[in-house]
Prior knowledge:
Elements: H1 2-19, H2 96-104, E1 156-157, H3 160-166, E2 190-191, H4 193-196
Antiparallel strand pairs: 1-2
Amino acid sequence: MKKLAALFAFTIFLSMSVNAQSVVASKHDLSTGGGITNKSTSETQVCIFCHTPHQKTLTAKPLWNKTLSTQATYGTYTSTSLTTTTVADIGGGTAVSNLCMSCHDGTVAVNSLDNKSSLGTPAMGTGAELDATGKIASANDNNMGINLSNDHPINFTYDAALATADGALKSPVDAKYVDAAHTVPLYSGSLQCASCHNPHNNAQGTFLRVSNAASALCLKCHTK
Length: 224
């Protein structure tokens, strides 16, 4: 009986290990074992491309290690059906989404780090994802560019008042999450890139928080 119990426990553990998702080997892993063609040819550390335990000069959280973009403005989405009028431009700001754009606006090299390892600035391999300067290539879909006016609005307060005024949005359960399952987070009550995307988990593709099959992710907020 004990052998059966031990075998069952091991099977569960193995299943959890196989299904566990991590940034390791994903497209956000730029180390030598990373998931892009342009992965580093020198740096073996995974987390260093975004985080550092000992920040030197940068002030962005959480222990951010990537040089932030100095882009002054990105523009904001506008539409006659947009209820909120408080969508704030993230350009030059400190919103959570600025961390994402420090790579994805295509203006800063992905290996431009504040606190480097003893190996120095990571050398990046050749491929289609990055250009010769280490920035996300302009032709790559992951380069969002510096104009977000045609993208889903971010950096706005998402609360019950907005949901009521709109009439087609679900009221968030609190200032930290949209849904009771806690799959779509809010940041100080605002919607950011990381509300829909989990930079550390690519299980759903394009780092989505949940599968968008049958628009499941969209329907976390929208009632249409």
